[in-house]
């Protein structure tokens, strides 16, 4: 692809963590690869992100540390503290963006503050493209429609019910396939990595693994402590059901590579499902509930299984050896690499700037 030195891009990162994250942080990894990949293609890229972020782009720090890195104490435990910190850091980000607004031809917003940025479109000439990492709902869709804001959906399913919005394109998330190395010979366990809460439905992964009489390893930060204490912790015995907590990047890859399947029984309409393609890149098939974008990732019976309940998930675990792990890897190489993702973002840059 030819070099693109004349297009100047701003990328607005989420303000929760530095880029890239040390542990969990799907959106942060996408921003990291988007920024670096566009620089590699010759674009002039500026990343607005938490101090300490590492990138090939020019870095504009917007906060001394991310929202999640702030300690909690009796003085900071009110329920809105995280939201107020997030809004404060987004205000810092927007102040700096306005200062440098004439420097950019196009702006990609990955923060959760897309809706409150919309009035800025009257003061910033460059298009602000909002990358949708969360599901749409009516009130949000209505304000995007009012401003005719350009949007990037991360799956086609994400558009369901809101197909008349101003989509610049669908760009699937991608993984660096060189980091998630292939393993043809897994060990005898299944893996589930997700934020632990009702919406991710960790309990059904536990019940399905137990029903299939297969060892399960769980990982992920606890979002709902009450859910964990009442529904997950009683099953953890350190043998057949193990819990690793929130894990780092290298340990995550090791657990993907050595697992015979990833269990993904999400209840909500998953906008994408980054962990699914991370597992597939390692050759590990995915057994998921048929929700959200998962049918766009999983070809039933080819690189995993789409199921509806614990019984079906348990049956899929028992026949997981029928899945060719090489085919799992190939499904990522054909559709879900960072190179493909960055190329799609580059195409949107050309389309909206007419360069």
As a percent range, the share of helical residues equals 25-40%
Radius of gyration: 21 Å
CATH-defined superfamily of the largest domain: Glycogen Phosphorylase B
Number of contiguous helices? 12
| Count of the separate structural domains | 2
Characterise the protein shown here:
The protein has 355 residues and is α/β, with parallel strands linked by helices. It has two domains: 8-174 and 337-353, 3-Layer(aba) Sandwich (Rossmann fold); 190-335, Glycogen Phosphorylase B (Rossmann fold). Helix content is 35%, strand content 15%. The chain contains twelve helices and 13 strands. A seven-stranded parallel sheet has the order 3-2-1-4-5-6-7, sandwiched between helices. It has a six-stranded parallel sheet with strand order 10-9-8-11-12-13, with helices on both faces. Helix 4 links the parallel strand 5 and strand 6 (151-153). Helix 1 (26-40) packs across helix 12 (338-353) and helix 5 (202-211) packs across helix 10 (310-318). It is globular, with a radius of gyration of 21 Å. The model has no long low-confidence stretch (mean pLDDT 92).
Set down the secondary structure blueprint.
Elements: E1 8-12, H1 26-40, E2 44-49, E3 58-61, H2 81-99, E4 106-109, H3 114-117, E5 128-132, H4 138-147, E6 151-153, E7 167-170, E8 190-193, H5 202-211, E9 216-219, H6 225-232, E10 241-243, H7 249-258, E11 261-264, H8 274-281, E12 286-289, H9 294-297, E13 304-307, H10 310-318, H11 325-335, H12 338-353
Parallel strand pairs: 1-2, 1-4, 2-3, 4-5, 5-6, 6-7, 8-9, 8-11, 9-10, 11-12, 12-13
């Amino acid at each position: 692809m030819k070099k693109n030195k004349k297009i100047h891009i701003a990328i607005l990162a989420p303000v929760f963590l530095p880029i890239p994250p040390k542990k969990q942080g799907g959106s942060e990894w996408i921003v990291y690869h988007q920024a670096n990949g566009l620089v590699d293609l010759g674009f002039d890229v500026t990343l607005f992100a938490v101090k300490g972020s590492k990138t090939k782009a020019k870095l504009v720090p917007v906060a001394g540390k991310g929202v999640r890195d702030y300690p909690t104490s009796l003085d900071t435990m009110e329920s809105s503290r995280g939201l107020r910190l997030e809004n404060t850091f987004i205000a810092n980000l927007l102040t700096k963006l306005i200062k440098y607004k004439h420097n950019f031809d196009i702006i990609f917003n990955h923060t959760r503050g897309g809706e409150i940025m919309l009035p800025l479109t009257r003061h910033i000439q460059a298009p602000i493209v909002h990358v949708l990492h969360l599901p749409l709902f009516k009130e949000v869709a209505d304000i995007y429609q009012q401003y005719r804001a350009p949007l990037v959906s991360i799956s086609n399913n994400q558009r369901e019910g809101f197909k008349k919005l101003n989509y610049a394109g669908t760009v699937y998330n991608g993984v660096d396939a060189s980091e998630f190395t292939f393993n043809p010979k897994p060990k005898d366990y299944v893996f589930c990595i997700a934020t632990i809460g009702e919406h991710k439905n960790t309990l059904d992964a536990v019940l399905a693994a137990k029903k299939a009489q297969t060892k399960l390893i769980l990982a992920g930060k606890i979002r709902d402590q009450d859910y964990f204490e009442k529904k997950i912790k009683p099953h953890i015995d350190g043998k057949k059901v193990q819990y690793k907590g929130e894990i780092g990047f290298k340990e995550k890859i090791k657990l993907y590579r050595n697992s015979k399947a990833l269990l993904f029984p999400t209840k909500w309409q998953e906008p994408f499902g980054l962990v699914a393609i991370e597992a597939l890149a390692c050759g590990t098939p995915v057994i998921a509930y048929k929700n959200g974008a998962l049918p766009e990732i999983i070809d039933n019976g080819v690189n995993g299984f789409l199921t509806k309940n614990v019984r079906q998930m348990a049956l899929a675990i028992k026949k997981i050896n029928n899945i060719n792990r090489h085919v799992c890897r190939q499904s990522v190489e054909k559709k879900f690499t960072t190179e493909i993702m960055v190329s799609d973002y580059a195409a949107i840059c050309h389309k909206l700037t007419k360069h």
